[in-house]
Amino acid sequence: MRTGHKALFLIVMLLGASAFGFWMVMLNPHNHEWPADWEPPASGSQHQVFVYGTLTSPLVRWVVKGRAGEGEPARLPGYEREGLDISPEAGAELEGLLLRVNGAELQRLDRYERLGLRYERQLMELHDGRDAWVYRRL
């Protein structure tokens, strides 16, 4: 095998292993224990979710929930970003996106955010008075 072919083979193998690892850790529905009080969202239900981190990327949303969907710019008053979390801060406004998702997509977002292990989902009021789910670190 020529050197160029070996390098290409190694790159393909590394990308495949990375994709498999990402799926196993972040998306695999069988590798996650739901919180005891968690109830799956009804499949036909509609939800609004305010996102401020990795889920602002259309590519990440496409991988996690099966479609990128359009995000609407939104702000969460009284909070600022602190690493992977948000914290209350008087006078602050956190910029992010408001996503509209169905019940199945909300369940995928819960899985991605490791609901009950890393994050909890809280209903919070946005700057315009609408309520949206927000993921906060435990």
Write a compact overview of the structure shown.
The chain has 3 helices and 5 strands, in the order αβαββαββ. The chain is an alpha+beta fold.
Characterise this structure.
- It is a single chain.
- This protein is an alpha+beta fold and 138 residues long.
- The protein has 2 domains: 1-31; 43-137, Roll (Hypothetical upf0131 protein ytfp), CATH 3.10.490.10.
- The chain is 31% helix and 36% strand.
- The chain has 3 helices and 5 strands; from the N terminus they run αβαββαββ.
- The chain has helices spanning 3-27, 58-65, 103-112; strands spanning 46-51, 72-82, 85-102, 119-125, 131-137.
- Strands 2-3-1-5-4 form a 5-stranded mixed beta sheet.
- The radius of gyration is 18 Å and the shape is globular.
- The termini are far apart.
Walk me through the topology.
Elements lengths: L2 H25 L18 E6 L6 H8 L6 E11 L2 E18 H10 L6 E7 L5 E7 L1
Parallel strand pairs: 1-5
Antiparallel strand pairs: 1-3, 2-3, 4-5
Report how far the terminal alpha carbons are from each other.
50 Å
β-strand amount: 35-45%
Major sheet description: 5 strands, mixed
Structure class: alpha+beta
CATH class of the largest domain: Alpha Beta
Number of domains: 2
| E-strand count | 5
CATH superfamily label of the largest domain: Gamma-glutamyl cyclotransferase-like
Q: Quickly count the helices.
A: 3
Helix-strand pattern, N to C?
HEHEEHEE
Name the helicity range. Answer: 25-40%
By CATH, the architecture of the largest domain is named Roll
Spatial strand arrangement across the major sheet: 2-3-1-5-4
Net shape: globular
Residue windows where pLDDT falls under 50 for at least 5 positions: none
CATH topology of the largest domain: Hypothetical upf0131 protein ytfp
